[in-house]
Amino acid sequence: xxxxxPAGNYPSLKAAVDNGADAVYIGFRDNTNARHFAGLNFxxxxxxxxxxxxxxxxxxxxVAINTYAQADQWSRWQYAVxxxxxxxxxxxxxxxxxxxxxxxxxxxELSLHLSVQxxxxxxxxxxxxxxxxxxxxxxxxxxxSLKQVQALVKKSPVELEVFAFGxxxxxxxGRCLLSSYVTGESPNTAGACSxxxxxxxxxxxxxxxxxxLNGVLIDRFSAYEQAGYPTLCKGRFxxxxxxxxxxxxxxxxxxxxxxxxxxxxLSEMGISAVKIEGRQRSPAYVAAVTRIWREAxxxxxxxxxxxxxxxxxxxxxxxxxxxxxxxLGAYSRPWQ
Length: 336
Prior knowledge:
Layout: E1 2-6, H1 10-18, E2 23-26, H2 44-56, E3 60-65, H3 74-87, E4 91-94, H4 97-106, E5 112-114, H5 123-133, E6 137-139, H6 146-155, E7 159-167, H7 177-183, H8 187-190, E8 199-203, E9 209-213, E10 216-221, E11 236-240, E12 245-249, E13 255-258, H9 263-269, E14 273-276, H10 283-302, H11 311-320, E15 324-326
Parallel strand pairs: 1-2, 1-14, 2-3, 3-4, 4-5, 5-6, 6-7, 7-14, 13-15
Antiparallel strand pairs: 7-13, 8-9, 9-10, 11-12
């Protein structure tokens, strides 16, 4: 299985490449990608440098153009596709049908991957994307059970990729209605859950920190807690029960996906690639997660029948995860 790793900047790309990634995915510095945060992503020149470093190390480079194009900004998405073709990247990851149509009609030689944002959860959807846009791979949503994934592999006309490690979201693969409600900007169009223009950190007199999203208080941290990036779904709020009032994660506890122990099953069923989430994370994070997954995939390949995640892998990943960990998120649910 191919190990696909994130890079929000050039140091992260080098970290992924140097620690064993088979492919690295990046985005351009605008709202054509779903990690459009200040300080992240690549200019044209930076993308050329990234491509050179990846190719010199026999690593493939993917570019995510995975938001939904807006009518008054369509030329921006066209330019992004044109740039991918000029760079001759290994693959373009897209969700918008208009973007895919433009890419496959103008650049038929450009390899298209269906983003998880496209939400293809059945064989008919995969067949449609393959017939209409000649996609060569699809990234599956995490709402599927493991048995559903297995059934899809048997019928899919294209390679399939699944998420392996990283933060989970309660929304359906980036379709964040909560962020849209509070900020008026959808991650699917603006490219960011909790856009930076709406985020505020406020220091309190006692050393603590308040975080707000468009004026809405999302969380209140003590002086001894690290203040996380404010997202509405993972904020802490007052919740009143019959017995008492508590301040808790009302919608979702911070949770990370960890599928390390499922590597043999995913390999056996024919999954082509496993993907690490985290273009918004640090180079140190990318390096550590990539290294562990490289070791684990190599160990499984050497002896699939005896493979077991090593304790040191799990211990390190627990330090890097967001809150608790779960096995393949919703993938571990029973057949539906």
